[in-house]
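Take the subject:
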Amino acid sequence: MTTNTSTNSTPVKAPRLEFAKAAPKAFRALVAFDAAAREGLDPALVELIQIRASHLNGCAYCLHMHTSDARKAGESEDRLHMVAVWREARHFFTEREQAALALTEAVTLVAGAGVPDDVYAEAAARFDERELAQVLALILTINTWNRVALSTGKVAGTDERQYGKAAGAGER
């Protein structure tokens, strides 16, 4: 990683491309996919899925964005703190949320062991077919967003969704 040093000796990342500007059609397609994935899902569930995938992918930019969004939507601090350790704190989450979190982990870490049959079966038991497809689509979109943010060096605490509105891309 190339870094510059600011006057206070804090490393500063070298600028990287602005994905939305450099690939506007791809960016708008991803925004549309994300919006379609969310349709009909409980907003709290959406944020929990996005937070857990962002934990697993080490994406501070998306983690900050989605924990902030969850707070604005009324999510409790207790639940937000427990997402990373949800298996040890199951009583904070519904059975549907637990199934979605397990599926999020399996899909996010798919290269390790695929998506185990028991994890898929539990999710299929908790969601109807349409909802399950929506949950899967949401998991796919947050994993893509995490990769965009990580590869382009997005900095946590700098929510750039306003650019997407200016570019006609809508809101993520």
Summary: The CA atoms of residues 110 and 116 lie 9 Å apart. The two ends are 28 Å apart (CA to CA). Strands lie at 3-5, 11-13. Confidence is low (pLDDT under 50) at residues 1-6, 163-172.
